[in-house]
TrEMBL record:
Name of the protein in question: 3-hydroxyacyl-CoA dehydrogenase PaaH
Gene3D superfamilies attached to this UniProt entry: 1.10.1040.50, N-(1-d-carboxylethyl)-l-norvaline Dehydrogenase, domain 2, NAD(P)-binding Rossmann-like Domain
Domain 3-hydroxyacyl-CoA dehydrogenase C-terminal: 190-287, 418-498
Cross-referenced PANTHER family: 3-HYDROXYACYL-COA DEHYDROGENASE FAMILY PROTEIN (PTHR48075), 3-HYDROXYBUTYRYL-COA DEHYDROGENASE (PTHR48075:SF5)
UniProt KW keywords: Oxidoreductase
Keyword Nucleotidyltransferase on entry: no
UniProt cross-references to InterPro entries, sorted A to Z: 3-OHacyl-CoA_DH_CS (IPR006180), 3-OHacyl-CoA_DH_NAD-bd (IPR006176), 3-OHacyl-CoA_DH_PaaH (IPR011967), 3HC_DH_C (IPR006108), 3HCDH_RFF (IPR041040), 6-PGluconate_DH-like_C_sf (IPR008927), 6PGD_dom2 (IPR013328), NAD(P)-bd_dom_sf (IPR036291)
Chain ranges of the 3-hydroxyacyl-CoA dehydrogenase NAD binding domain: 9-186
All residue ranges annotated as the 3-hydroxybutyryl-CoA dehydrogenase reduced Rossmann-fold domain in the record: 347-416
Domain of life: Bacteria
Key word Acetylation present: no
Phylogenetic classification of the source organism: Bacteria, Pseudomonadati, Pseudomonadota, Gammaproteobacteria, Pseudomonadales
């Protein structure tokens, strides 16, 4: 274990939302912390704020009063940068501006010991670039906390081209000792989370733009079928569309306009209108007084369904069978290609083809496609779509079957990959490319997406659960359907599938 010694002094620069949170984390872990801000009085104010926050935790019985007292005693405002000269680790959380951060690092280098680690909490600037021109770039590293720092477990430990591996190891172990969940990442645009999460927003925005369904239905599907804490529209309303669009644009530009990261016109229009989300009172949803939250649209059927035929292995959908039989549906099994037959209807998991195209390609009558669920045994909602020549009666049979098993059923227009499958396939694709490009290990990427943005399952583990072949085919079909590079499958998915291996190996 190479964590910073508990006696080592930590300095935090910038007493805003992030700096104050980071100072609290380091002080609670037992370090003496100096907090500096170039706005007079800001550091002392932030420490008062932390003291009040900790007092609330004491009141709630979540912190013992002695711990609060000793934590607050370890926090000292610094009047000048010079007062930070004894620090073993400096973490800067000042304004997100390359020139200003570089200037600060030059000052710190002249001031602090040669062994002092200079860490930046930047979310979007290159660590390599921040360190360039310094005498000791090997000591410069990213320590990317998430907001609010005292609550969010994830810390991305970001190495630039010159960062010494031992420095990254020390910071990793230190973050762990502070009770955080660190991951290693190479300094590349968006690091892990801000890159791999792009498709989560992008695919919902695209589905909305192409008339798949309304926001409330798409959000409900990501939550209730996908197991995500929030759908993309409610989440971007919370983040702020200006902020979310700016991150997308910065990643898009940094990857030289790679269409995989293309910003959305739908979101741009909200920004242009000043509908920035909750903070402005309106975004995709209306937060003004008296406004009502729209409800997801649902299909209902009064058809009677008592039996269905299961043809072949349903793969990731297999747990659905237990649920159907528990709801009293009689199941008959026979060989086949992983389909359910309900009366005249055929029900199959989407593979990224349009329903109408698949019905024609595979000669399937009355085809209804079902979306991916995180867990078919407990999901409360599921999406379906159907081929143009599917009869209303056949569709109603499927709706009745799913209703009987306890699902709310939401209809989507016939778009490739439906909502959850397409989102997860694209998240896994981005994660795979990040592994391929050596940004981070598969395990760290999955961990980062669960600890940093609360995904219910790491995208790569999810791709394994769906099956690499099915994930890959979904992407291939999306790419064919749209004719766009955006959906090109990562070489790592292709290679791992061809080798019969696993992404986590
Ligand atoms: P903020 O605006 O709340 O706080 C920045 C603080 O730095 C202010 O108090 C300001 O007076 C001070 N400051 C500015 N220039 C300074 C200088 N040259 N020397 C000393 N103090 C200076 O900003 P926030 O949100 O805390 O962000 C800080 C950093 O953390 C940025 O690099 C940002 O990209 C990053 N970050 C922000 C997250 C967020 O959700 N807000 C999440 C993760 C990283």
């Amino acid at each position: 274990m190479s964590a910073l010694h508990i006696e080592a002094q930590v300095a935090v620069i910038g007493a805003g939302a992030m700096g104050a949170g980071i100072a609290q984390v380091a002080a609670q872990a037992g370090h003496a912390v100096r907090l500096y801000d170039n706005r007079p009085g800001a550091a002392a104010q932030a420490i008062d704020g932390i003291a009040r926050q900790l007092a609330r935790l004491v009141d709630k019985g979540k912190l013992n009063p002695c711990e609060r007292e000793s934590t607050v005693a370890r926090l000292q405002p610094a009047e000048s940068l010079e007062a930070l000269a004894d620090a073993a680790l400096v973490i800067e959380a000042i304004v997100e501006d390359l020139d200003i951060k570089q200037q600060l690092l030059r000052q710190l280098e002249a001031l602090c010991a040669e062994t002092c680690i200079l860490a930046s909490n930047t979310s979007s600037l290159s660590i390599t670039r921040l360190a360039a021109g310094l005498a000791r770039p090997e000591r410069v590293i990213g320590m990317h906390f998430f907001n609010p720092a005292p609550l969010m477990a994830l810390v991305e430990v970001v190495s630039g081209l010159a960062t010494e591996p031992a420095v990254a190891d020390t910071l990793y172990d230190t973050a762990k000792a502070w009770g955080k969940q660190p991951v290693h990442a190479r300094s590349t645009p968006g690091f892990i989370v801000n890159r791999v999460a792009r498709p989560f927003y992008a695919e919902s925005l695209r589905l909305l733009q192409e008339g798949a369904a309304d926001c409330a239905s798409l959000d409900a599907l990501l939550r209730e079928a996908g197991g995500f804490r929030m759908g993309a529209f409610e989440l971007t309303d919370l983040i702020g569309h200006d902020v979310n669009d700016a991150v997308t644009c910065s990643v898009f530009d940094a990857y030289y306009g790679d269409l995989r990261f293309q910003p959305s016109q739908v979101q741009k229009e909200l920004v242009a209108a000043g509908r920035l989300g909750r903070k402005s009172g309106q975004g995709f949803y209306d937060y003004r007084e008296g406004a009502e939250r729209p409800q997801p649209a649902e299909l209902r059927s009064s058809a009677e369904v008592t039996r269905c035929v299961v043809e072949g292995d349903l793969g990731v959908m297999q747990p659905l069978l237990q649920r159907l039989s528990a709801s009293g549906v009689e199941l008959t099994r026979r060989a086949g290609q992983g389909l359910l037959r309900i009366g005249d209807a055929t029900l199959a998991l989407s593979d990224g083809r349009l329903a109408s195209q698949r019905a024609r390609d595979d000669g399937l009558q009355n085809l209804v496609l079902i979306d991916l669920a995180l867990d078919y045994s407990s999901a409360t909602r599921i999406a379906i779509t159907w081929a143009r020549n599917t009869t209303i009666e056949a569709r109603d049979q499927v709706v009745a079957l799913l209703q009987r098993a306890g699902f709310n059923v939401s209809a989507l227009a016939d778009l490739p990959g439906l909502a959850v499958l397409r989102t997860v396939a694209m998240l896994a694709n981005e994660a795979a490319d990040a592994v391929l490009q050596g940004v981070a290990s598969a395990a760290d990427i999955d961990l980062a997406m669960c600890a940093g943005v609360n995904y219910p399952l790491g995208p790569l583990a999810w791709a394994e659960r769906i099956g690499l072949a099915h994930t890959l085919h979904t992407l291939e079909h999306l790419q064919q359907a749209y004719g766009e590079e955006r959906y090109r499958p990562s070489l790592l998915l292709r290679r791992t599938h061809a080798e019969g291996g696993r992404l986590h190996d």
